[in-house]
Amino acid sequence: MKLSQRVRQVKPSATLTINAKAKALRSQGVRVISFGVGEPDFNTPHPIGQMAVQALFRGQTRYTPVQGIKELKEAVIRTIQADYGLYYEPDEVLVSCGGKHCLYNLFQAVLDPGDEVIIPSPYWVSYPDMVRLAGAEPVFVPCAESRGFKMAPEDLRKAITARTRLLILNSPSNPTGAHYRPEELRALADVLMDYDQVMIVSDDIYYRILFDEAPWANIAMVEPRLKARTFVVNGVSKTYAMTGWRIGYLLGDREVIKAAGKIQSQSTSNPSSVAQWAAVAALSGDQDTCRHMVQVFAERRTYVMDRLRHIPGITCHVPDGAFYVFPNVSAYYGHAVGGRLLQGSTDMADYLMDEVHLAVVPGDAFGEDRCIRLSFALSLEELREGFDRLERALQKLTPTAT
Ligand SMILES: Cc1ncc(COP(=O)(O)O)c(C=O)c1O
Question: The Aminotransferase class I/classII large domain covers which part of the protein (predicted)?
């Protein structure tokens, strides 16, 4: 069968691939520890599920308005107003099937062939492929580990051309956990004020998962004059352990929201009606379970950083948020083990899977081959076992000087 040009330039998601590999081994009875997961290991809080059940029995099971039910849009507007101090009208909100779908709709609505999208690297795996699917070109700005994986304003300025249409910011970040402080956003905003044609996507999906009471802000909060060209992507997946429910929301300029809604109307229509009601409960209900989850993630981060510090040759930036660490394991590259040469993060991920049945995501998928991504959305017991395995596997290799 002939496949389209479009699909041929897209890679399958590396995270999903690694999880499929882990699943296949498990089905053979192997105990795999997966550091590959990209979702909280908590269950969706009970009241949220109850709301979905009630919606189901009330018969709220039919098509809803494509852009989302009024009650959910209102809950989103209230939440964003409380957390960001920014106000949006209902026609500036689009509810979609997860944050991922928001990004997809937005890119389809605003990008054309020849347009450039600036993506600070390391980046979330899906950004470049979604940009390519819209016919545009990703332009990567390397962000050094020594700078906490954050983009310098001068590097942003250098990357902007007459073709730049979008900049993607993601804070806290997947895969590094790096978070931009308000003054760092201010410096980026100063650059962006010189380039009217550049719109900004603020992917805030991890904004509630921040440690040490770090102050959170996005670029439109820091520079209100950028609000008109900033698109906020957020959703319930990570904050409320609702990854499977598929509810995300996009906020921004009403003309673009309308256009993104048109793309949605011709592809998926509305997101699941009962999931929308569940999201109303998530946003309107008690926020304590989310606070508890963040506390647990913070304890795990401490444990994970402690284990990593004790492994020779590894360097690792301490994540400010989300539930990932992105250690640099390149000191172990260039070694042969059992007749195979480890040359990069994919070889390392394969080696760890084969040698000790530990699933990690190669940093290459996030634009940084020196690193691997480890998720700490696992119980402490599993983390302990996983790090024992990691140590065991790495002991068989000798690190080179970094
Ligand atoms: C940075 C980032 N943005 C967006 C998403 C999409 O989240 P959702 O599950 O709401 O589609 C993810 C999910 O892993 C993510 O890591």
Answer: 32-390
Give me Rg for the CA atoms of the chain: 21
Atom number, ligand 1, closest to the C-alpha of residue 102:
11
**181 and 51 within one domain:** yes
Ligand 1: centre distance to CA 111 (Å): 20
The protein residue whose alpha carbon is closest to atom 7 in ligand 1 is 99
Banded pLDDT at 14 (limits 50, 70, 90): confident
- The answer to the question of residue 192 being in a domain is yes
State pLDDT tens for residues 280-313: 999 999 999 999 999 999 999 999 999 999 999 9
Largest separation between any pair of C-alpha atoms in the chain: 64
Kindly report the CATH number assigned to the domain that includes residue 338.
3.90.1150.10
177 lines ligand 1 (CB under 6 A): no
Kindly report the protein residue whose alpha carbon is nearest to atom 14 of ligand 1: 38
Split into its structural domains, the chain has a count of 2
Separation CA 239–CA 368 (nearest Å): 26
pLDDT in the model for residue 23: 87
